[in-house]
Amino acid sequence: MAKSSSTDAVTLIRSLRSAYAATPTNLKIIDLYVVFAIATALIQWIYMGIVGSFPFNSFLSGLLSCVGTAVLAVCLRIQVNKENKEFKDLAPERAFADFVLCNLVLHLVIMNFLG
Amino acid sequence: MPGRGIIILLALIWSSLSICTASVVRPISEAHRSAALELFVPFDGSFGSLEDIYASFRTLEILGLEKTQDVSDVACKSVVDKLGSPSSTTKDLFYALKVNSILRCQTETIKFEEIASKLQTVLKSASCLPDFYYSIGSLLLIKNHGFEVLLSDAAGTFQSIKALSQSDGKWRYDSSSAESSNYAAGMALEALAGVVSIADSEVDKSMIGVVKNDIVKLFDSIKSYSDGTLYFDDKYVHTNDYRSPLEISASVIRGVTAFAEVASGRVNIPGNKVLGVAKLFLSLGVPGTIKDLFHQIEALSCLENNRIYIPLIISLPATVLSLTSQDQLKVDVTSVFGVPAPPLTVKLLQATNSNSDGKPNIENQELYFDQENSIHYLDIASLKVDVGKYNLIFEASLHDPVDEKKYTTGGRTSFSAFFTGSIQIDKAELAILNSDGDSIETIESLDLSKDSSLSLSANHLQTFRLSFQPTTPLGHTFKPHQVFLKLRHETNVEHIFLIESSARQYKLTLDFLGLVEKFYYLSGKYDLELFVGDAIMENSFLRTLGLVELDLPEPPEKAPQAPPQPIDPYLRYGPKEEIRHIFRSPEKRPPKELSLAFFALIFLPLLGFLIGLVRLGVNLKLFPSTPGPVAFSLLFHSGIASVLLLYGLFWLKLDLFTTLKILSFLGIFLVFIGHQTLSRLASTSSKVKSS
């Protein structure tokens, strides 16, 4: 049983990998961006865990900027993905423009809150 | 026998009523004269109305003081204006004439006969009291100035004024008003006196007699203050109409004395009432305003030479007499202005010590008269009286029986006086007793005429005793008001004890066992000081007796600490203790190395992102190549970059407002550019797709 489960897991990962390879490049860029943002958030979280949350506003603004930008990237990915039937009529450039605008607003607020 | 008891009681009541207790009254003195000169100053450049000017000048005239020339000139000018003007009221004319009679202004141009005839016509049609008062008064003044003035229908005028009187002796201002007042009575009586003076034929004696009765009725309703002075007062409705009892009493006295001058026969007012009113004016001391001073001085000058009774004031120049320096008891009897009285004898009826149960110590002593200084005196030292506070009762009797009808001395007058002397302290001794109460550990006798420096010691089980006997010069027991013993520790902690008196001696017993807590368990040397003092003692003293070394047990844990002793009061001007501020301690910051390490660590994901991009095969193929779109694209990217730069600057040094201002410009620019770029990109990609 264990052997079959481990082989099942390996097969699962392999199939995931091959399926993922089929995604278009621009989606992969967005995915990479999201991973980058989350990793940065994680490092900030670990730092806070070590030194304490003294300038709490700074911690929050840093963390939320990473999380916020990741969320916006995910929204972009949804809108740009051709396989999404809901957003068939939305031009990807339009989605990108939204992404840029929202990011700029987010970062203005973040900069204000950073202190 | 109850009958005898009642008679004695009644006699006591009657005698207490007939004694007038004097407040401090002294005749008019230099203090009044200097006050008059000080108060006679202009207010806002002018001296007020003619009425005020008259009041000031009359005060100075009575007191015999000179007026300054320039003030007289200003006043005279005002007088001449008022007398010459045809529109002046009778009140203005009255006061102008009054001032003129004092100052004797240059009035050659004034036609007094015309004024007199005008006043006569006013008088014929007068119906209210002020009209009568001012017109009659003015006519009288014109007559005194040297002109012929005769009132034709004197009896009629007299009756009209009399008609305004009430049954209680007061007068109304006119026939329609319901309120009567004493002030109006004074005015009316003065007016009636004026009528009698300027009448062309003699006024009927019966009418004068009726008015004399009115005066007696007026004095029946006189009021008295608790110190025995008498005054007149009126009710008032508006505060504008308020007149003080001083003003009202002065008005009544003026009217009554004026009428008594012109009336034949006596006015039956008892002498003690006249004296009571005189004392009212004298007990004011020196008033603070010129108006009050005027009322006081004018009323007293009316009383000084009146035909009813001239008051004679008995007063004591000094009320504290020393037996050691053999002071004499001096008594002054003068008129209200300090003029010496006619020949009389002053008798000290009684002198009672306040603590001798009412039995008089001196009785029926006649005082000797010093001709040169016009003062009556008595040598008390020879009478062998003791020290103390005395109640003295005097009576003055005039030698000439004629004088007794002219003057009044007020019967018996009582005063308080202090006879001081030197008190001797006998049998003073200090003892330390053992705990069994009786056996004496140490005993020392004291000489309290000088400081001593004894040295005793005691422990908390023993008792301290101080005793002494104060005696008067005649050998009686004396109880001083203040008898204290003070114990002061080396650390300046003080304890004060009151020394109680028993039958003959003063004794203080301190049981240290009970006082251990009061002394805060402080052992050590205590300085002893004794205070004995009284108003009657000429030799009140504060003596150091020495010191006592006290041995008290150790304080328990919760014993109260001695209060901190006051520091030298001058130390408050020295430098103060430095204040140490406690700031909020800064938060603990992580060590620098850790922060820098994580700062470096943050760039790792970015690096990973870039590497991943390269691995994915990112390229810039779709970047436009034609110049137009190139420019737009470049501008787009630089726009975004500049916004991010702005954010960086915002974090570093800009404030929100500047940032938003710049951002608004950049934003509009970026939106425009972005729209252009992206729409172009969209159109090219859709073209590619469709093709």
TrEMBL record, chain A:
Residues spanning the membrane: 32-50, 56-76, 96-114
Keyword Transmembrane helix among UniProt keywords: yes
Pathway(s) per entry: Protein modification; protein glycosylation
Membrane topology according to the record: Multi-pass membrane protein
Keywords associated with the record: Apoptosis, Endoplasmic reticulum, Membrane, Transmembrane, Transmembrane helix
Annotated localization: Endoplasmic reticulum membrane
Domain of life from the UniProt record: Eukaryota
InterPro entries, per database record: DAD/Ost2
Pfam families in the record: DAD
Main location: endoplasmic reticulum
Complex formation: Component of the oligosaccharyltransferase (OST) complex.
Family to which the UniProt record says this protein belongs: Belongs to the DAD/OST2 family.
Known function: Subunit of the oligosaccharyl transferase (OST) complex that catalyzes the initial transfer of a defined glycan (Glc(3)Man(9)GlcNAc(2) in eukaryotes) from the lipid carrier dolichol-pyrophosphate to an asparagine residue within an Asn-X-Ser/Thr consensus motif in nascent polypeptide chains, the first step in protein N-glycosylation. N-glycosylation occurs cotranslationally and the complex associates with the Sec61 complex at the channel-forming translocon complex that mediates protein translocation across the endoplasmic reticulum (ER). All subunits are required for a maximal enzyme activity.
Listed name of the protein: Dolichyl-diphosphooligosaccharide--protein glycosyltransferase subunit DAD1
Phylogenetic placement of the source organism: Eukaryota, Viridiplantae, Streptophyta, Embryophyta, Tracheophyta
Gene: DAD1
Automatic annotation (TrEMBL), chain B:
Alphabetical keyword list: Endoplasmic reticulum, Membrane, Signal, Transmembrane, Transmembrane helix
Domain Ribophorin II C-terminal: 583-683
Main location: endoplasmic reticulum
Domain Ribophorin II second: 312-415
Subunit details: Component of the oligosaccharyltransferase (OST) complex.
Protein name: Dolichyl-diphosphooligosaccharide--protein glycosyltransferase subunit 2
Annotated Pfam families: Ribophorin_II, Ribophorin_II_2nd, Ribophorin_II_3rd, Ribophorin_II_C
Keyword Signal in record: yes
Signal peptide region: 1-22
Pathway listed: Protein modification; protein glycosylation
Keyword Metal-binding among UniProt keywords: no
Gene name of the encoded protein: RPN2
Family: Belongs to the SWP1 family.
Spans traversing the lipid bilayer: 594-618, 630-650, 662-682
Source taxon at top rank: Eukaryota
Protein location: Endoplasmic reticulum membrane
Topology class, membrane: Multi-pass membrane protein
InterPro entries the record matches: Ribophorin_II_2nd, Ribophorin_II_3rd, Ribophorin_II_C, Ribophorin_II_N, Swp1
Role this protein plays: Subunit of the oligosaccharyl transferase (OST) complex that catalyzes the initial transfer of a defined glycan (Glc(3)Man(9)GlcNAc(2) in eukaryotes) from the lipid carrier dolichol-pyrophosphate to an asparagine residue within an Asn-X-Ser/Thr consensus motif in nascent polypeptide chains, the first step in protein N-glycosylation. N-glycosylation occurs cotranslationally and the complex associates with the Sec61 complex at the channel-forming translocon complex that mediates protein translocation across the endoplasmic reticulum (ER). All subunits are required for a maximal enzyme activity.
Domain Ribophorin II third positions: 427-550
